């Protein structure tokens, strides 16, 4: 649309945005999560953040209603996708009371985002949102904290992704300090999507 930073990548990773698709073998029952930049659920699963509850065993299961931001998870429950069992993901600090670990990124630079899948659902698209300058870091993430126009959209046209999928796009410029990227994987043939919140530092 109008935003200079809104990018489109083809489902096969063709190159208008330098998108690329990587595959690795193996799959199991489950769904998916992001590990570049590392998501809160993956930080819980790999032990970087402790006392996370059930999400530490199933980082791929942050599934909720699709249609974000017009619908989808409620404000304050975006990072857990409305799953009360994963409420630790919504809190502005880890269960230990410390800041969520962040990934260093640079605005205006290309970044490769990566998903890991344990079930390869037919996919509508992937969208990436980010918090606005001056967002409220002291409460659970709400739509009012986010730029509700995705800075990267990757159409997937109903295809099924491989077990690992990477695509590249330019991070928004003009941001500094701590921000949260909300990655949304929209499933084509169900009413749901998968959500992943990643804390980054510009």
Structure description:
This protein is an all-beta fold and about 200 residues long. The protein is about 5% helix and about 30% strand. The chain is built from one helix and nine strands, in the order βαββββββββ. Strand 8 and strand 9 (about 190-200) form a beta hairpin. Mean pLDDT is about 85; it is low at about 1-30.
Work out the number of β strands: 9
Strand content: 25-35%
- Briefly note the structural class of the backbone: mainly beta
pLDDT average, as an integer? Answer: 87
Radius of gyration: 15 Å
- Binned, the helix content reads under 10%
User: Which consecutive residue ranges, at least 5 long each, have pLDDT under 50?
Assistant: 1-30
Order of helices and strands: EHEEEEEEEE
Keywords: Secreted, Signal
Protein name: Chitin-binding protein
InterPro entries: Cellulose/chitin-bd_N, GlcNAc_Chitin_IntDeg, Ig_E-set
Main location: secreted
Question: What is the topological layout?
Answer:
Blueprint (H helix, E strand, L loop, with lengths): L31 E5 L3 H6 L17 E3 L37 E2 L5 E8 L5 E9 L14 E10 L8 E7 L7 E10 L4 E10 L1
Parallel strand pairs: 3-9
Antiparallel strand pairs: 1-4, 2-9, 4-7, 5-6, 5-8, 8-9
Care to give the gist of this entry?
Its main location: secreted. By secondary structure, this protein is mainly beta.
Attribute tags:
202 residues, 6-stranded mixed beta sheet, 3-stranded antiparallel beta sheet, 1 helix, 3% helix, 32% strand, disordered N terminus
């Amino acid at each position: 649309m109008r935003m200079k930073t809104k990018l489109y990548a083809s489902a096969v990773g063709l190159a208008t945005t330098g998108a690329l698709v990587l595959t690795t073998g193996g799959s199991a029952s489950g769904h998916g999560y992001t590990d570049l930049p590392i998501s809160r659920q993956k930080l819980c699963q790999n032990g970087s953040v402790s006392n996370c509850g059930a999400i530490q065993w199933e980082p791929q299961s942050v599934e909720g209603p699709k249609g974000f931001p017009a619908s989808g998870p409620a404000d304050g429950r975006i990072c857990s996708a409305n799953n009360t069992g994963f409420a630790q993901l919504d809190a502005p600090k880890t269960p230990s009371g410390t800041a969520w670990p962040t990934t260093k990124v640079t605005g205006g630079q290309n970044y490769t985002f990566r998903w890991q899948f344990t079930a390869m659902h037919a996919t509508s698209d992937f969208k990436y949102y980010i918090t606005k300058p001056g967002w409220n870091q002291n409460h659970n993430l709400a739509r009012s904290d986010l730029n509700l126009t995705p800075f990267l959209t990757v159409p997937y046209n109903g295809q099924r992704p491989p077990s690992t999928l990477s695509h590249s796009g330019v991070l928004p410029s003009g941001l500094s300090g701590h921000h949260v990227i909300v990655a949304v994987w929209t499933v084509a043939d169900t009413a749901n999507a998968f959500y992943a919140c990643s804390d980054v530092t510009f």
